[in-house]
Design a protein that fits this description.
The complex is a heterodimer.
Chain A: H1 9-14, H2 18-39, H3 48-67, H4 71-74, H5 77-86, H6 103-118, H7 125-145, H8 150-155, H9 157-165, E1 171-175, H10 178-182, H11 188-191, E2 193-194, E3 210-212, H12 235-239, E4 245-249, H13 272-290, H14 294-307, H15 312-343, H16 349-356, H17 361-379, H18 383-395, H19 412-441, H20 446-469, E5 473-474
Antiparallel strand pairs in A: 1-4, 2-3
Helix pairs in contact in A: 2-3, 2-5, 2-7, 3-7, 3-17, 3-18, 5-7, 6-9, 6-13, 6-15, 9-13, 13-15, 13-17, 13-20, 15-16, 15-20, 17-19, 17-20, 19-20
Chain B: H1 7-30, E1 42-48, E2 51-58, E3 67-75, E4 86-93, E5 101-104, E6 106-109, E7 112-118, E8 122-132, E9 138-148
Antiparallel strand pairs in B: 1-2, 2-3, 3-7, 4-5, 4-8, 6-7, 8-9
Classes of the chains: A mainly alpha, B alpha+beta.
Chain lengths: ~475, ~150
């Protein structure tokens, strides 16, 4: 099904100003977050900065990815801000070749997750507001210096998270008819539609000289596969003169089984950085969920006593290092070695890891949805009284009525069955993907080849279920004093 | 005008950006994002203008799901007990999105006030005491209750 053909919704998405409208809305929300975070009450449950980011934004982002696609990137207010800045400052540089790939973005993603736990950002409205300002500043600086969507493609930690998660989305932008693309002489989907017809020598998507830019992330639609690196900006839809691009429904995760070359990405089994993103995406989901449980604080205290640490950052650094680097490396290397031994394949240890690593994304996504979904469902209504309170803070009068502080959301116990379902569904997806990969790559011994990876998936699922069943302990101060 | 910039210059500009962002992050971590409170269940006197507030939690440490009593003592600048204040107490988790708890505050005389309540979840809580002093002045006090333990 092509969603761009759905009445009303399709017409809205095809409207050239649809994205700026969505971005403007989120820009206003960001402004409210920053202002209330900086100048509002520094009480996390009563401040827009902490409530909107920790409860609603994270939850809606992940739910949107599962239900539709990478909608946050579509409506990203930072891209709107940098578009405005580019009207004044035109980028002249190309992103350095030696910094291309996901390593830098991956490091930033881990840094953001680490900082969130270390500085307890959910409890600090002013720090949250400053982080939002810093994020906007970094996006504007990078994209004012460098051409294209350098920030989105190579740096943005939220973007990298979204790219990994959206491989499981039920929609993707893709061409409708291959023959139409073969006969296309202009390739506007990547080059952009120039101001003067027939003027194409400037190369891909240099905004400012085009009436409609093409894909800024370097995805050439006829060779595009899946959602990796796709921000769903719809620039390609607007640029295509043949109306040959669809927002099509599809089987979630099927793109992870594609081994062929894809535009802007290359071949998945040859991209160690993307495989690392898949692994970190999955294991960071466990750490992030674990960090808010009672046992996490017990582990922190025991670890601190063992190594004699007096500050939280050293202890957290060890936990992160072990959880998102050492443990995954050992598990995946072990699984790869067993696969090679059992299935007697000729593939290298590294090659086997890079092939199977992507199968972890479904279980990783299941854990993220279970975690962020919990906060969203248990706190969904808190937006009402916090907005009412923010209006009082801003205007000095209860224009929206007195805050209804009793409005919260579902009871935590009622959400647990949903969390359970998310993890089990994710695990089932990963198990199916492992099975499909082994049947494709080791057809003579698929069960033996898959067995070690099935064990890894089951271990992750078991760990996730154990974590989610632990009593929550919302701590905002260091347990180390 | 299109200016061609060499790889060396590119690297220098990028390094400058990374240093700038790094500095911002470090600055943020030192001030706005600092942490390191002690776990405590007994409050030293805290002053809100002319009123000094001390408090205790009984039993201590508090356990989620079990009834406790928050006891507040209000004294003025001359250390005289402030009786007759009309107070309300709300318990909020430091994490947003969680259900608050409310408690009626009873004036026990001699500047002492009791508020029976029950924390619904383990973790860090903030008690928000609001109301009116005997002279009609508004009163607000925020008390941090760190480390409410889970029910075993």
């Amino acid at each position: 099904m092509n969603i761009l053909r759905v009445p009303l919704l399709g017409a809205f998405l095809r409207w050239r100003h649809a994205r700026p409208v969505l971005q403007s809305f989120l820009l206003l929300v960001s402004l409210a977050v920053v202002l209330h975070g900086l100048f509002g009450p520094q009480l996390a449950p009563r401040n827009l900065a902490t409530v909107l980011t920790s409860i609603h934004w994270r939850g809606l982002l992940i739910v949107a990815i599962v239900a539709v696609g990478n909608l946050f990137c579509t409506a990203c207010p930072m891209v709107l801000a940098r578009d405005v800045s580019r009207r004044v400052f035109h980028p002249a540089l190309r992103w350095p070749r030696w910094l291309r790939g996901k390593w830098l973005g991956l490091a930033l993603l881990v840094a953001v997750l680490f900082s969130y736990e270390l500085f307890d950002l959910w409890s600090r409205p002013r720090a949250t507001a400053l982080l939002v300002v810093a994020y906007f500043g970094l996006a504007i600086v990078i994209d004012t210096l460098f051409k294209g969507a350098s920030f989105c493609k190579h740096l943005c930690p939220i973007g990298q998270f979204n790219f990994a998660a959206s491989t499981m989305s039920p929609t993707e932008l893709r061409i409708v008819d291959r023959e139409t693309c073969r006969s296309c002489k202009t390739s506007d989907c990547i080059k952009g539609r120039p101001a003067e017809a027939g003027h194409h020598e400037r190369g891909p998507a240099e905004a400012g000289h085009y009436v409609q830019r093409g894909c800024e992330l370097g995805l050439f639609l006829p060779m595009k596969v899946g959602n990796l690196d796709c921000t769903m900006c719809l620039d390609c839809v607007h640029a295509c003169p043949h109306d040959n691009i669809a927002l099509a429904t599809r089987t979630p995760g099927a793109e992870l089984l594609e081994r062929g070359r894809r535009s802007g990405i290359g071949r998945l089994p040859q991209r160690a950085d993307l495989a690392a993103l898949a692994v970190v995406f999955t294991f960071a989901a466990l750490v992030s969920a674990f960090a808010m449980t009672g046992p996490a604080y017990a582990v922190e205290q025991r670890l601190a006593a063992t190594i004699g640490a007096r500050s939280e950052w050293a202890v957290l650094a060890i936990i992160f290092l072990v959880s998102v680097l050492v443990a995954p490396a050992l598990l995946l290397t072990g699984a790869s070695a067993f696969t090679r031994a059992f299935a007697e394949t000729r593939g290298s240890l590294r090659g086997t890891i890079l092939t199977y690593a992507y199968a972890l994304i479904p279980i990783g996504l299941g854990i993220w949805v279970a975690h962020y979904g919990f906060h969203l469902l248990t706190g969904v209504l808190t937006i009402v009284p916090v907005v009412q309170s923010a209006v009082i803070d801003a205007f000095g009068r209860a224009l929206l009525g007195d805050p209804l502080w009793g409005w919260v959301g579902l009871q935590p116990g009622a959400v647990f069955p949903i969390q359970l379902g998310c993890v089990l569904l994710g695990a089932a997806g990963s198990l199916a993907m492992v099975q499909a990969i082994s049947q494709r790559d080791q057809p003579s011994r698929p069960v033996l080849a898959a067995a070690p990876w099935l064990v890894v998936v089951l271990m992750i699922a078991t760990a996730a279920l154990w974590i989610l069943s632990q009593p929550m302990e919302m701590r905002a101060v260091s347990v180390l004093g | 005008m299109h200016v061609r910039v060499g790889p060396r210059a590119q690297r220098q500009r990028l390094t400058a950006v990374i240093v700038l962002v790094g500095s911002l992050a470090v600055g943020c971590s030192g001030r706005a994002c600092g942490y390191g409170f002690d776990v405590h269940w007994r409050g030293e006197p805290e002053s809100t203008d002319s009123i000094r507030v001390s408090w205790t939690i009984d039993p201590s440490p508090p356990v989620a799901g079990r009834p406790i009593v928050a006891r507040l003592t209000l004294r003025d600048a001359d250390q005289k007990p402030v009786a007759g204040a009309r107070l309300r107490l709300e318990g909020l988790m430091s994490h947003p999105g969680m259900a608050p708890v409310t408690a009626a505050v009873t004036d026990r005389g001699n500047g002492e006030y009791d508020a029976p309540l029950q924390f619904t979840m383990a973790g860090d809580w903030i008690l928000l005491v609001t109301g009116e002093l005997p002279d009609g002045m508004p009163f607000t006090q925020q008390i941090e209750i760190n480390g409410v333990r889970p029910a075993s």
